[in-house]
Write a structure and sequence with these properties.
Elements lengths: L1 H35 L4 H31 L3 H4 L1
Pfam family, one: PspB
GO biological process, one term: phage shock
Organism: Glaciecola nitratireducens (strain JCM 12485 / KCTC 12276 / FR1064)
Length: 79
């Protein structure tokens, strides 16, 4: 009975300790290192371009809303 308990609990624990835990730790700290390094130049350029695009879209939305406010004052109530 005790031998079965050792087999069913000990073997998976040993396998986890020898194989899964080291790989898990390596991958965890590798991802932490990448996050702490910040954005690459390419990622920063992409982020800057997206921010500029969002600003242009915001301006366009404000313009469209002001046109709609003049031409159809109750358009917000329909939405």
């Amino acid at each position: 009975m005790d031998e079965l308990l050792v087999i069913f609990t000990g073997v998976p624990l040993i396998l986890f300790t020898l194989f899964v835990a080291p790989i898990w730790l390596i991958l965890h700290y590798r991802s932490k290192k990448q996050v702490s390094q910040g954005l690459s130049e390419e990622e920063f350029a992409t982020l800057k371009k997206l921010a500029e695009t969002a600003e242009v879209m915001s301006d366009r939305i404000q313009t469209l809303e002001s046109i709609l406010d003049e031409e159809a004052p109750k358009w917000r109530e329909r939405a």
